[in-house]
Input
Amino acid sequence: MKKILLSWSGGKDSAWALHLLRQAGEFEVGGLLTTVNERFRRVAIHGFREELLERQAEMAGLPLWKVDLPFPCSNEEYEARMAVTCERAVREGFAGVSFGDLFLEEIRAYRVAKLAGTGLEPVFPVWGIPTDVLAEQMMAGGLRARLTCVDPRKVPAEFTGREWDTALLAELPEGVDPCGENGEFHTFCWAGPMFSEEIPVEAGERVERDGFVYAELVDGA
Output
């Protein structure tokens, strides 16, 4: 099998991508590739603490490939640091990078363009699955997640920290994607078939930062 990295946000989509890749058996996932805010030591965009990221990798049985990003981070700096990581991946025998993108064509085209000429193949295991169907499949398959970040212009701020479940989906405002693919919300996956054990978390304090509302996740054991 070809060895690939999985772009890992820690959210439900990348977690389900790991599950599907392992089921398909075409690729061997050899590591989780994650961008981390080097100032706050939190996963970029999703906003949860680095210790929880490390716990996910432990439960997935995979090494972490952390790419530290400055804060704030320009797109040029982001691309430069990712290019260094791609060069390392090729040196270490990786054949591709997998992404949990669902349907945003411009994002997919960007990833394909940036990997062109690197020697790494882009892989999209959850691409094109209707997101209402995908949400149902994830939940039926045992995936559990909490909302770590919401865009309060699209989703009520009080949804931050809630469990991503059928009750939440029923309460989402009209037009909000059930998987949050348009940036309405981001999640932390704490249980599912991709993990050997659950990572129990509870929602703590909510904070607003840069126009988004974040929930601190704390140990729920």
Observations:
- Residues 75-91 form the longest helix (17 residues).
- Helices lie at 12-24, 50-60, 75-91, 105-115, 131-140, 166-171.
- The mean pLDDT is 97.
- The chain is about 30% helix and 30% strand.
